[in-house]
Design goal:
With 204 residues, the protein is an alpha/beta fold. It has a single domain, classed as Rossmann fold, CATH 3.40.50. It contains seven helices and ten strands. The strands form two sheets. A six-stranded mixed beta sheet has the order 5-4-3-6-7-8, with helices on both faces. The radius of gyration is 17 Å and the shape is globular. The model has no long low-confidence stretch (mean pLDDT 94).
Amino acid sequence: MHLVPTQEEVVELLRQTGALRDGHFEYPNGLHANEYLQVALAMRSYQHAKTMSVALSRLVRANTEIRAIIPELSIVAPGTGGLPVAYGVCEALRAHQVYWAEREDETEPLRFRQYFEMAPGEKVLLVDDILRSGRQLSELKSLVESKGGHVVGLAVIVYQDTPRTVKFDPLPFYYLARLEATYSKDAATCDLCRRGVPVERVWI
């Protein structure tokens, strides 16, 4: 495997670990897709987690502006899916610290834990395992900025955009693989539904 794995190598790793599956899936927002991805299944293995986290850190480090601030850079992730990636990237970069935001339940906004205090102007790299809709990372970006932080970029293992994906231009954005699933906005427009392919409802 290359120092920074190729798209094909990342996809093969995801398939081997069961993190990437073909089929007919319905997401909580109503979208139907022909594949499902759960990077956490690949991150269960220490070696796979290290491989992907180190590779992602190398992409980030190639940005000269970010590289210059690594000693003071905070890695911030949404809990819990992004945490293994965040800690792996922080260790590989030797960045300053890791912290995360979470919510009590789906009706509550993201928030930092008590005493997670952000310094004014703190430089932050947002990290997650997947960027799909982008809503959670967009909310996290807003939270960081509301606390006085400055987001310098985003990094994820897999970019799996949908017709509803939030854009983060002009921020630097890094990923190891981009997956282009076939999405339908609902069952009525889904070819797999019309063909009678059984659907599996997924949580995320």
